[in-house]
Request: fold
Amino acid sequence: MNQYDFQKTLNKYLSGQHSPEEEDFIMEYLKTNPLEESPVFENEKEVIGKKLKKRVFESAFGKSLFQKSLPWLAAAASVLLVAGTWLFVFNETQPETFAAAEISNRHDLVEIRNTSGMSRPFTLEDGSVVTLKKNSSLSYPSHFGKKNRTVYLHGEAFFQIKRNTAKPFIVSTGNLVTRVLGTSFNVKSYDKSGSVEVQVKTGRVSVYEGADNGSVNKNGVILTPNQRIVFDKKSRKMELSIVENPLLVIPAAETEHGFSFSEIPVKNVFSALEKSYGIDIVLENDTADSCLFTGDLNGLTLFQQLDLICKSANISYERRGTALFVQGEGCMN
Reply:
């Protein structure tokens, strides 16, 4: 077969218009002529890496492979791994094609990519669920090691981690490392963004700066529910704060008064909110001690609740770090 005929056959293979015999020929040629060693493939290396995207996943995240695709996948993987390139496999059953898997002979990692316009959940082998946001990717080993469960995030994802005290779960973004045993949290770390953000929904999360050489320096914090940290990549500074929409940590019904109050001291109302949201509320003076509050706070966000209470008691609050500070003249006698 001359160069022209070979190129014609290769083009048919890449476009999916080949016959079984032509596929067998291409696969056999790749086995005996690795991409790195053959000048025939100089213009096709990138094309092959991008277009081998078919017949692999029954669905893009975590589901079984098509049985008929397994022999093809094994052959293609062996060829591309020998050649030192990436193998991309996509879901062709969905027109949006939102995910991909990559296999690397250097790191033995699988990569999931979400290129759709919506978040997509998938389950890791330990039972942890990762909801990958759009334009994001997650790399992880096909099998976790004995000491930890490390994954690598580019973009944003919400993690619901299966608790395992013997194997911490670690999310690395290159700039920050997030380490947990079992909890739920969100990490946002897009490559083009100047910052990394981590916020916690449940449990406790250790967040610290990761050095390029793999070591860990002392720049780190512990986050608890409704707390977040924003790490500036340039200045390498961490800013702690409260999440924009705090969620209940303890149901209102489990507090002394619930969220419906009748002539209750304002400081007791603040105590109920503090317990329910797990956020420190500091009264900087005693001017509100004599104030009573009556009202139904059910169905309101935390900051709507605080606005209502403060307006009734002639006080105000401000956010400082991960706490709320209350001050003001208080009730008029």
About this structure: The radius of gyration is 27 Å. The first strand starts at residue 87 and ends at 90.
